[in-house]
Amino acid sequence: MDAQNLQNETGAAVAPLSAADAIDLAQEKGEVSIVDYKMITFSLAGKDYGIDIMEVKEIAKAGRFTYVPNTMPFVLGVYNLRGDIIPIIDFRIFFNIPVPERKNDELENLLIVTVGEQTFGIVVDEIDTVVGIQKSTIQPPHPLFGDINIKYIYGVAESNKHLYILLDIDKIFTSRITKEDAAKAMKQQTYVPPVEERVVQEASESSVVSESVKEEKPVDNSDKDYSFVVTGLADLGKFYVTDVNERWVKERFAAWTKERGAKGAQLQNAADAEAFLTPFWSQNTGTWWSSAYADAVYKLLPDNTAKQIIVWNPGCGKGYESYSLACILKKRYPDARIRVYAHEIDLLNVSNAPLLSIPANVANDWYAPYVTKKANGEYTFTQDIKDAVMFEYHDCTNTNAIPVVDIVFARDTISFLPQAAQAAVINDFEEKVKGNGIVILGENESLGNRTNWGEKLVGNLVVYNKQ
Fold first, then answer.
1. What is the pLDDT of residues 323-341, one digit of tens each?
2. From the centroid of its chain, how far is CA 139?
3. Phi, psi torsion values for 455, nearest 5 degrees
4. Which of 36, 125, 381, 446 could pair with 385 as two cysteines, CB 3.0-4.6 Å apart?
């Protein structure tokens, strides 16, 4: 990394600090001896924190961030870092820590971090130094150590009479579920074996069934294979089988066993789970909508003369779905004010969504009335479409403050919640959807046999309304 001072667009000096330079500096000061963990330390509201030095690209001072509308309060805007446009996140606001009043053109202390392929600028109070410790001295986190949610804390460590709270950048900026989390979630799943399997199991446990009877009524291995697949989907794919998706899972399992043949039906790894779930995804998931799919969604939207149409879009991903939905809603309800609450638990996605660029072939397709061309030749959505979508870092399983809604658009989202969370979210749908409102789920999901929801087929898509 270039170690020379660089000038940012505010005229302030930016001094990149490489990991190697930081370690050498710490060693020169005699601050480390035999260490296997180095961290950049900083302060928030007078408390000491640390981040793994391998996550930190450089340290800088900058200001005059470009405001981006319809982003969460902790997103201060974007910044041009030597040609790279990066989101700027204020950790103080993110963690609900009081922030001193900002002065015009005041430079902020930035940690430039890289998570995956994305670079972020993190605003903190003060950046201190590099501290090296032995990894074995890191203690488990405890809620009393800071004002920050314990799930974002990697651990705590002491050095030179300072207690440092080590933050887990990966967990802060991405949505991850550990194997332990998956195991806990699986405990919430209640698998009821088929009748034949229960009879043999109970008889075996009570030693009532004789060997001859066992030979006459062997256990059906396909039932066991199915239960293993259900477990594997939760453990390896974070996909939870309930009445929301059980019909599809059983149909897919039948096809899966034929595909696998001698390999067996059990899921051995994450790649197997991904292959099993490949046919599950709805049309145009994670990409721009085709004109055919856009027309299908347009046709299932009910008549509504309200002056404002409010939509809840949990699991909005990178924003393709939310913007596409906003365009269709604008077409369907041209005189109404559109408001889409787009929620996502992946901070990378929700931070980048407002910056989403539009390829020329997409801009010239059915999106054309809702797109404008910038001076540099790039395409962006018109201001009314941008203003229609509110991207929020939010977990749909938690109580939220959105108002009652006309539409819930939640494709391929509920199935990736544990059983108890699925039930809670569906109950939330019932509370938040207006009497004449609708719910749209993924093409291979349903509201099961719930008597308070009616199911209607419109073309190839299913829509649910209150009974």
1. 999 999 999 999 999 999 9
2. 28
3. -115, 130
4. 381
